[in-house]
Design a protein that fits this description.
Elements lengths: L5 H10 L3 E4 L5 H4 L13 E4 L6 H10 L4 E4 L15 E4 L6 E4 L4 E4 L5 H9 L3 E2 L10 H7 L6 H4 L6 E7 L5 E5 L4 H10 L5 E8 L1 E2 L3 E10 L3 H12 L6 E9 L14 E9 L3 H8 L10 E8 H4 L12 E9 L4 H11 L8 E6 L21 E9 L5 H15 L20 H5 L3 H11 L16
Parallel strand pairs: 2-4, 3-4
Antiparallel strand pairs: 1-2, 5-6, 6-10, 7-11, 8-9, 8-10, 12-14, 12-15, 13-14, 13-17, 16-18, 17-18
Helix pairs in contact: 7-14, 8-11, 11-12
């Protein structure tokens, strides 16, 4: 515990409207919990902000007392950057409001909001913006790293739909950034993570979606994986952008539409999503059933907000998680073979390998339009190691790393920073490629002391 005077803490409390949580408080252990149970850190104090004006005094306090700063939005980050040991956490957990201007098709989102908060607010007007696939994910971290999901093929990445932000700099100054105001900062935060400033409000462009969409699963026996994945690869080359299909390899959860005897067996799943006329969507999805002999399927019309929560039971907080990720411009036979090989030896029932199809609108953005540059990627692969017991750490992490290495020769360049673990700092420069030098210059301008370094860190240029 860093020694901070009682007077200094009382002074901080007098300057913020939110709550300051100390290690001695009864709620401390609950408040410091984040999604990934592998992360075990003990901050000196946590400032649970009630408004944007709470951020500058929190930064000033950290500077005055030599404290490291971490920033918590939804607390979902795989690397655990929301927490620091013996430092100060700027926690936005209670700032979850979303305001929608339906006429302008805009959403104004606080940094503690989750995907569920945003989806529910926008869908009440039949609107949405592309976000991820797990409703408990925080909007802030997702957006700052790029953000992709079911709507990405049609409407691009989350950052492609970001219109402006309000933020606080490392010096405690409140500013706004957009294409027309502090444009260099706006360029950098769209994919550059939390390196440059603390965002206190996001403004998103919205699109007409739902409220009902067509979505579901087709589950095939694992023995048919090569056949199914090969046909999937061919199918998506010409599929319209309104249709998204992801491929998933894992052990079958106890889904009610699957025979009991296949629960726990390895399967290959085609996850389908169509935002449009359900009859037309049904016709487009029909060929997928003939890729093999399915064990079962569950596809139908349902509210978009319900589909956004469909995978939440597989991604609940409290498990141990370790991820690895690659981008692909194409899925060659070598890539498919490596996926099938490692899916056949998953170390726990919760592990999975998924291929997210992102080809479409995101590919039409120039790679230097913003910090996020992977505009040639048509697929994002995530090897998702997940288990419950600490004693399984070594085995499960080794499996994820081995698959990551085996599939690397078939991947394209770069990396998706939201899926990078804490020890992957050596991949940061390659994640940004030709954009890195400009990012390092902007980092020097806005955060020359690298105060905001608990992230996939971009160091300020010397």
């Amino acid at each position: 515990m860093i020694n901070i005077s009682k007077e200094a803490i009382e002074n901080l409390k007098s300057k913020v409207k939110g709550r300051v949580v100390l290690q001695s408080d009864s709620s401390y252990d609950e408040v410091r919990q984040i999604w990934n149970a592998m992360i075990e850190r003990h901050p000196a104090l946590i400032v649970r902000c009630a408004e944007a004006d709470d951020v500058p005094p929190a930064i000033a306090f950290a500077r005055e007392n030599g404290l490291e700063i971490s920033i918590r939005g939804g607390g979902h980050n795989i690397a655990g950057n929301a927490l620091c040991d013996n430092g100060l956490v700027i926690d936005f957990s209670t700032m979850t409001k979303v305001r929608v201007d339906a006429e302008k098709k805009r959403a104004y989102v606080q940094p503690g909001a989750t995907l569920a908060d945003l989806d529910e607010a926008t869908q009440s007007h039949g609107l949405a913006t592309p976000v991820g696939i797990n409703s408990t994910t925080g909007i802030a971290g997702l957006t700052l790293g790029g953000g992709f999901g079911w709507l990405t093929r049609k409407y691009g990445l989350t950052v492609d739909n970001l219109v402006s932000v309000e933020a606080v700099t490392a010096q405690g100054k409140r500013i706004r950034a957009s294409e027309n105001e502090n444009a260099d900062l706006f360029w950098a935060i769209r994919g550059g993570g939390g390196n440059f400033a603390i965002v206190t409000q996001f403004e998103f462009k919205l699109h007409e979606v739902g409220p009902e969409i067509l979505a579901g699963l087709i589950v095939f026996p694992f023995e048919q994986a090569k056949q199914v994945l090969t046909r999937y690869r061919e199918f998506v080359e010409t599929a319209p952008e309104e249709l998204n299909v992801w491929a998933l390899l894992r052990k079958a959860p106890p889904l009610p539409f699957l025979p009991a005897e296949v629960h726990g067996k390895e399967v290959v799943v085609l996850v389908t999503f169509y935002a449009g006329d359900t009859v037309q969507g049904g016709k487009l999805i029909e060929p997928l059933r003939r890729f093999g002999a399915p064990w079962g399927e569950h596809i139908g019309a349902l509210p978009y907000t319900q589909w956004q929560k469909a995978f939440d039971p597989l991604l609940t907080p409290g498990a141990r998680n370790y991820w690895k990720s690659h981008n692909f411009t194409e899925l060659g036979d070598g890539a498919l073979d490596s996926m099938i090989e490692f899916a056949g030896k998953m170390p726990s029932s919760q592990c999975e390998i998924f291929v997210g199809l992102v080809a479409g609108a995101a590919n039409r953005v120039p790679p230097d339009a913003m910090a996020y540059r992977h505009r040639n990627a048509k697929f994002v692969l995530n090897v998702h190691g997940r288990w419950d017991k600490r004693t399984d750490d070594e085995r499960c992490i080794a499996w994820a790393r081995a698959f990551f290495q085996a599939s690397a020769p078939y991947a394209s360049d770069g990396a998706y920073i939201n899926f990078m673990t804490e020890e992957e700092s050596d991949r940061v420069a390659s994640a940004y490629g030709a954009n890195y030098d400009r990012l390092a210059q902007i980092k020097k301008q806005y955060d020359p002391d690298n105060l905001f370094h608990l992230n996939q860190n971009i160091k300020p240029v010397a």
